[in-house]
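Reopening this one. Same input as before:
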Amino acid sequence: MTEHVRAVHPEPDMVQLLTPEGQRVEHPDYPLEITDDEIAALYRDLVLVRRIDTEAIALQRQGELGLWASLLGQEAAQVGAGRALKKHDMAFPTYREHGVAWCRDVDPLALLGLFRGTNLGGFSPHEHNFNNYTIVIGAQTLHAAGYAMGVVRDGAVGTGDPERDTAVLAFFGDGASSQGDVNESFVFAAAGNLPVVFFCQNNQWAISEPVTTQSRVPLYKRASGFGFPGMRIDGNDVLASLAVTRKALNDARNAQGPTLIEAFTYRMNPHTTNDDTRRYRLGSEAETWKLKDPIARVKAYLLREANVGTEFFAELEQESKKLAEHVRAGCRALPNPTPESVFQNVYVDAPDELLKQRGEFVDFVSSIEEVNA
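Same output, byte for byte:
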């Protein structure tokens, strides 16, 4: 492993620990002690998460999913943040945090079920300490602030016990930063000195609206107006994401209050599979960002500095293929929801009127199936 060098960062206010060329650099505020084996493990995460995304897009094009929100280009931001979490921390995603879900051991099929319409999320949030996907833009930040309030009231912050002190990590995008929910969550987090880290993936576009239309200043600077620190990281640098998020989460656990992290990245694919980026952005823009690919820079480091052999990459390719087979076959095998399932989890004790409606609906669906049989 070669000696790290101090480099000029692409922007003076952006934290970067791994350049697009795969060179390790230091940052005085965010030192990162990490082995080459650990970097290789992060590379594995990045590759497998991208493969899940690729297969999901193909499944949607084949009519197996109703929709899919791609994370192409945002893998490093998500994997770095996801691996910074401790097991007992809680994460609140939007609908695009497939990389964080992977880090929290959520089966990709559980995510596909949501976009296929066969479940409401498909996994237990408490089992994985990873909340269900939130479609309402920005709402999850208020959920996170509320959860962080509970952490404080449970006395699970600032005790010095690493097995007890808990942090909360809330994800949102640059578009959601314009939502009232997000700004309200900042107010609550600051006023209560809550143990929550707000992680904004600024992928430059809120569907067809560029971030420059929404904000006159970099998004991370908004934190100062609410009274807590904010910083911008190279969102395509998995090491920067890991180091900065890890420190912010540690600060939260130690009762140092909230932090805002802006991961400066780019959405390489359309907003969802129902979007067409040709209507609002130039193709050359994406071509420029391809040079900053989050996976390519880690591979460059592993090949040049860590001397990782070709066997590692060959084994990972085989693992990637097996995962793709699991996703394809598993998606098509997901059971369809039963007619009565729409009535589940509405009330703890269902009222008689709802039970009556359930019975009538089940009978109605059965009658249609008999006609079509």
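So the earlier flakiness isn't reproducible anymore. For the record, The two ends are 67 Å apart (CA to CA).
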